[in-house]
């Protein structure tokens, strides 16, 4: 009986040692997987940030060569001038013939003038929710009046870094 008891103790000891080794191996595998997953998650976050950056530019670049109505041009002015990055230049048939040939540029309140802005620069009032075009209250007789049913073609301008800085709409 004593012999049998000693054998049982040594078998139990071996089983315990095997269980500890298996637990250590599983822990090492888990740590390895966590480390690899962390890198993958970081890569995924980077890709997501790049995708969101590209998406914000897609909303501007889609107007390149696109024919839109004057109503849509007004919407683009309102939307794009919420930020100070992208300015919108509108060239109507009347202001093409007038002294402001080239059009009027609408921009955000903190917009810094650039080479893409035309001579007449109209900025959104700081903190205002009113579009800079709507704030002017243009009448149909004004050179800068955007006829809602007129057709405009868009052109997108980018800076040296490839960032969209201006969208120009010319009345057809």
What descriptors fit this protein?
172 residues, alpha/beta, 6-stranded mixed β-sheet, 4 helices, 47% helix, rod-shaped
What is the structure about, briefly put?
The chain has 172 residues and is an alpha/beta fold.
Question: Secondary-structure blueprint of this entry?
Answer:
Elements: H1 2-61, E1 67-69, H2 70-80, E2 87-91, H3 93-97, E3 104-107, E4 120-123, H4 132-136, E5 151-158, E6 164-171
Parallel strand pairs: 2-6, 3-4
Antiparallel strand pairs: 1-5, 2-3, 5-6
What does this molecule look like?
The structure is a single chain. With about 170 residues, this protein is α/β, with parallel strands linked by helices. The chain is built from 4 helices and 6 strands, in the order αβαβαββαββ. It has a 6-stranded mixed beta sheet with strand order 1-5-6-2-3-4. A hairpin with a 5-residue loop joins strand 5 and strand 6. The longest helix is centred in the first third of the chain and has 60 residues, at about 1-60. The radius of gyration is 32 Å and the shape is rod-shaped.
Strand content: 15-25%
- Rg, Å, rounded: 32 Å
SS element count, helices: 4
User: Which strands sit side by side, in order, in the main sheet?
Assistant: 1-5-6-2-3-4
Helix % is 40-55%
Let me know the number of strands: 6
- Uncertain segments of ≥5 residues (pLDDT<50)? none
Multimer state? single chain
Largest sheet: 6 strands, mixed
Compute the average pLDDT: 79
Given helix and strand content, the structural type is: alpha/beta
Straight-line N-to-C gap: 106 Å
The ordered H/E elements are: HEHEHEEHEE
Shape: rod-shaped
